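Sanity check. The docking grid for 6-O-phosphono-beta-D-fructofuranose depends on where the pocket ends up, so I'm generating a full predicted complex first rather than guessing from homology. Inputs follow.
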Amino acid sequence: MESITASKEWQRLAELRRGRQDRRISDTFRADPERAKDLSAEAAGIFLDISRQRLDREILDALFALADARDFSGARDALWRGEKVNHTEQRAALHMALRAEPGDGVGDAETERFVIDERARMRALVERVRSENRFDHVVHIGIGGSHLGPALALDVLDAAHPDNEGIAVHFVSTPDPAPLAKLMRTLPRERTLLALVSKSFTTAETALAFATLADWLSQGKDRAQVLREQVIGVSANVAAMHEGGIPGEHQLRMPEWAGGRYSLWSAVGLPVALRFGMPVFEEMLAGARAMDRHFRNTEPRGNLPLRLALTGIWNINFQDARTHAVLPYSEALAQLPAYLQQLEMESNGKHVDRDGRTVDYRTAPVIWGGVGMNGQHAFFQQLHQGTDWTPLDFILVAGPDHGLRAQRDCVLANGLAQAEALMNGGADESGDALSPYRAFPGNRPSTTILVDELDARRFGALIAMYEHKVFAQSVIWNLNPFDQFGVELGKKIAKRVEPAVSGGKVPDELDPATRQLLNRIVRRET
Ligand code: F6P
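Predicted complex below; grid placement will be based on this.
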């Protein structure tokens, strides 16, 4: 395949960039009264406005031409057909099948069967646990994709269902002693259920955290019986669940063809179903499904995930943006930046393309962010007046107001105002001599995502929109977004370091900095 940067479509975009150096976003609004409308679109309950980006119709057309040249539609079809798009691991990536309805044509009949069977098993287990009323607490033990999605979903749904009194969910993502000790001090052993969630079932941190809690749960009891009664396993590794003593009826299977960071829609979403019930879990799936259908069937110009993806390509590859901030104006979405960090950076944080060549263009940026209103009193200073600029996603939630209208209005007004201030900038209005310090350069772009309400359905659609954005960018960058070999090396070294932390010999092959630190750590303990 020809290098992307040599293609005429890429060159055209570079040329457009050169020709637009001096133009400000605010000028483009003055030149085109239809701009806000033209550069906004809506699907599956999500309203997406890219009019505050440094682009125009001509640039957008050139970006769509780039997507065409990369055979975006062909790649999307291959994904949906269940081809082994994860070529390095010889796997399909069919997370959409987890939320599809029969007849949606995601993958093959075997894929569909798996989803139907596992959903039925999950439903039966969830309904039994909820109706037996034996447990008040579930501890969800998992990391990365086996943690971030359900943790975020729980925050969102707790806010959406304030009266819910279902089983309390606690997340353990690492073997950090402090939170583990706290849980073991405070939870009632008899009324606590452990959910051990790990696609591979080989993640060392998860295994250790689980063993700690399982030991605690079985103090003075028959461990095997506790494992049989108070543990649910969620994994693609069925043999390991058996070996670990988890009985078949407490095992929920994850498919090999859904990557960890795309697995919220499988039994990894178990805590959602345990706390809120299967119908709410299925609402979340329905929202994601609506976005899947939109992404698959809508022509490029009205396609939300594609618009989002191409906006990113424009900022990253043609305007040198190195980071991207996600700013939800909703505390329920406080964990969204962390979720998207994994989704985007683990998927597209790569420098070798599908053909094994080192790329000569930038790929996934650093994703960061936080609740917008808190950011205003912390890092927004740099966003407004720093030497760098950062593309931003403002995420606004219009309702409900929970009977606190003025408070809702305050939050929304701030989100709207910040986007405007960043774009328009402004001179010092105080009239004092320090004006350069108070001036705002402006012309700092942002995207606005607006939802009327953050319920299970719209939340599902929001997350699926970002999933497809990541896929679309991977097509442009010619990357495999579904493997993650970059996480392996550190894990291997940790295995060699651990005995030394525990007081064993410090291996000579470790680098001098590690050896010095190890010597200090071990000395402190003795
Ligand atoms: O180390 C990275 C990673 O493999 C992620 O891709 C994954 O989501 C996470 O670890 C947890 O993996 P598992 O679910 O297999 O424990």
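Relevant for the grid: The mean pLDDT is 96.
Also worth noting: The chain has 22 helices and eleven strands.
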